[in-house]
Write a structure and sequence with these properties.
Layout (H helix, E strand, L loop, with lengths): L1 E4 L2 E5 L21 E7 L5 E7 L12 E9 L5 E12 L2 E12 L2 E14 L2 E10 L4 E11 L2 E11 L13 E15 L3 E14 L4 E13 L2 E11 L4 E13 L2 E12 L3 E14 L2 E10 L4 E10 L5 E9 L4 E8 L1 E4 L6 E4 L7 E9 L19 E3 L2 E3 L8 E7 L5 E5 L9 E3 L4 E3 L6 E10 L1 E10 L6 E4 L4 E5 L5 E6 L5 E7 L2 E7 L1 H7 L7 E5 L11 E3 L5 H17 L11 H6 L5 E8 L2 H11 L5 E8 L2 E11 L2 H9 L3 H4 L4 E4 H5 L4
Length: about 675
């Protein structure tokens, strides 16, 4: 399999007999950290696993405490353990401490650590302190950022008698280490870019001597062949050395070929070793491998071959190797991963390790009532795929709407979302954008991701005839905006030649709709106001949300146009229509609903004049009350579930009604005033 980092081939591995593989010491830079594993099939097809990591995913949320404890035996059978505690100090700062026990140089050592990770603008800063039980100490500080599109990583470590797996016990140990890493792309022509990585490490030893190491890696993809070349220059007090390694990967006739050529440049130019490996997938999860490595310094060639089963309920591997110096070996491995299902009592068997990774058991269903919970009668959805940190994962839901997403990175936040391209019904849309969670080793997290039926909103924008109140034709090219309750534009569309428009895939909820104010200003039209549109959870379409436009009209026609827009706005809501002096209608409205009080008058004659003058006798309700022994009539308009909807209707009122200085009130206040 091949490992790509931000689209660049950086390494490849042949899995062990049990199908396991490991890529170690992979640095994370500021910006993109996209890793892609490519598994090649027998007919040239590929299966990929994508992993995306952001630096801020390592931060702990404010006030949260994360901890973990790990005990293990290393490859030599030596015991070790790690206990770690992390606390989210702020949204941009995490404090951590840990205890580590490990064998180094044949001696068991214990370490206590303290670290702070924070983000300041476009900079990620790390500070750390490590105290060993033998008195050794290490101080570290690091910064990661991006400069002109180039990722920059810089670190400094100061050591005092400090020994670890990285800093081994030697006669002249490191006292100060500085590291700088730059990664970016060099432009080659108008459409070609060459990925490059440059890293420099400078070690100052206790004796005062300095050791420097410089690595330069560049990659290319030519004629379906991936090539990566790495040059490494080492400057030591006793010698200088320049070495190189060329990686080549290509698939041909269903076979995957990979080659590594290691060579020296300084002090002498020579090829030191050449290896060629190949693999062929017999079926999904079944693979045969073979290859050889020739070492030119001792003329020994090592041949190897193997068969493995790495998918399904168990793993199996058989390997054999032979060296021309007479050494040989045969290996047989059987592997079984065992874990509980997150939603049932049954056990899951797997050919891949499970204990060291997190697992999410995700249930997808059509949420008919919008409560984000799968209730009785709601339908599960099969065949739904997922994105993990924005990258595609192969797992899909079964007939019960459940998928098991395995091999999640632990102890850092992971974002899981529905892959919208996998939804077969165009009206379906995720009810929530996704969920951020922190997987734990061997732990199954149960997660519900509801799908809601979306709707369409349609209508027509008319151009009002200058000679009459009736609209005579639709008008094309009108820009319409759909706003949420915070007045943010969430969708836009434009009318066709006949004035007809459609907003598609609109999630349930309440929205405001308007003609683009900039277009109204530019064309000099009279403002047609807002429409308040309720999109139901049933997926039913909302039709007939119309607008009337006009300009350069006499005052009487302007009021007519305004009245038409107000009437159209009222048609977007299913309302319980009132009639004048209708106490029963007012009583039926929920106390928490809002209404618009248009005016207060002191006599029936004044009331009749007001209703007739504004043409609202069939739309308004009148509440009769008394104050200091005098009868008063309150004229109210509409019933709205929230203040935003009432505000939208308020802004749609004709200028003649706005002059009466109406205001928005709750029904609870008005219902208590009835006489």
């Amino acid at each position: 399999m091949e490992l790509y980092y931000n689209g660049t081939l950086i390494d490849f591995r042949v899995p062990d007999e049990d199908g396991r593989y490991r890529f170690e010491d992979l640095p994370l830079s500021y910006g993109r950290n996209d890793f892609r594993l490519v598994f090649n099939g027998p007919l040239g097809q590929t299966r990929t696993e994508e992993y995306r990591y952001n630096l801020d995913s390592s931060l702990v949320r404010p006030g949260e405490v994360n901890y973990n404890f790990v005990a293990h035996n290393d490859e030599f059978g030596q015991p070790g353990s790690i206990a770690q505690l992390e606390f989210g100090l702020t949204g941009k700062t995490t404090v951590s401490t840990s205890y580590v026990s490990a064998f180094t140089g044949g001696t068991e050592r214990h370490y206590g650590t303290l670290g702070v990770r924070t983000f300041l603008g476009s900079y990620a800063l790390d500070t750390s302190y490590i105290q060993a039980n033998d008195g050794g100490r290490l101080w570290g500080v690091g910064v990661q950022t991006s400069v002109f599109g180039v990722a920059l990583d810089a670190d400094r470590f100061i050591l005092q008698d400090f020994v670890s797996d990285e800093f081994l016990p030697v006669p002249d140990p490191v006292s100060i280490r500085d590291e700088v890493r730059l990664s970016g792309r060099l432009p080659l022509g108008a459409q070609t870019q060459l990925p490059v990585v440059l890293s420099v490490r400078r070690d100052q030893l206790e004796s005062g001597e300095v050791e420097t190491e410089l690595n330069f890696r560049t990659s290319a993809y030519v004629r379906r062949t991936a090539l990566t070349n790495t040059l490494s220059w080492q400057d030591r007090p006793s010698y200088d050395r320049l070495q190189g390694s060329l990686l080549v990967s290509r698939r041909f006739l269903g076979l995957g070929f990979r080659s590594v050529v290691n060579y020296d440049v300084i002090p002498g130019s020579d090829v030191t070793s050449v290896s060629l490996t190949g693999d062929y997938d017999l079926a999904r999860g079944y693979r045969i491998t073979g290859g050889g490595t020739h070492h030119l310094n001792n003329s020994v060639t090592l041949w190897n071959a193997g068969f493995s089963k790495s998918l399904g309920r168990y793993g199996l591997g058989v390997t054999g190797q032979y060296a021309t110096d007479g050494d040989y070996g045969v290996g047989l491995r059987f592997f079984l991963g065992l874990g509980r299902d997150g939603r049932h009592t049954n056990w899951n068997l797997a050919a891949q390790p499970m204990a060291g990774y997190g697992v999410a058991s995700v249930q997808v269903f059509v949420d008919e009532n919008g409560n984000n919970v799968m209730d009785a009668g709601e339908v599960p959805v099969a065949g739904v795929g997922f994105l993990v940190n924005g990258a595609y994962r192969e797992a899909t839901t079964n007939e019960a709407g459940i998928a098991r997403i395995e091999r999640l990175s632990v102890n850092r936040y992971v974002d899981i979302a529905i892959n919208q391209s996998s939804l077969i019904d165009p009206q379906w849309q995720p009810a929530i954008p996704g969920v951020s969670l922190m997987p734990r080793p061997g732990h199954v997290i149960k997660l519900d991701l509801p799908i809601r039926l979306t709707s369409e909103i349609d209508g027509t924008v008319f151009l009002l005839n200058e000679e009459a109140e009736e609209a005579d034709r639709g008008v094309g090219g009108i820009q319409l905006q759909l706003l949420d309750e915070s007045m943010e534009v969430v969708a836009t569309t434009a009318t066709a030649w006949d004035g007809f428009y459609i907003f598609s895939a609109i999630a349930p909820g309440q929205y405001w709709m308007q003609v683009n104010p900039e277009q109204i200003r530019k064309e000099g039209w009279e403002t047609p106001g807002f429409r308040v549109v309720d999109v139901p959870t049933s997926g039913d379409f909302v039709s007939g949300v119309d607008f009337w436009l006009a300009k350069d009209l006499p005052a009487s026609n302007k009021e007519a146009m305004k009245s038409r827009n107000v009437k159209a706005a009222g048609q977007t809501r299913a309302a319980d229509k009132p009639s004048a002096i209708d106490h029963s209608w007012v009583s039926r409205q929920p106390e928490d609903n809002f209404t618009i009080q248009l005016s207060t008058v002191g006599s029936r004659s004044s009331l009749a004049h007001f209703l007739t003058e504004h043409g609202i006798a069939r739309q308004a309700a009148v509440v009769e009350s008394s104050h200091n022994g005098k009868v008063r009539y309150l004229v109210v308009y509409g019933s709205y579930a929230n203040y935003g909807a009432a505000r939208g209707a308020f802004l749609n009122l004709p200028d003649s009604l706005r002059k009466a200085e109406p205001w928005i009130r709750r029904f609870a206040e008005i219902q208590g005033m009835k006489g």
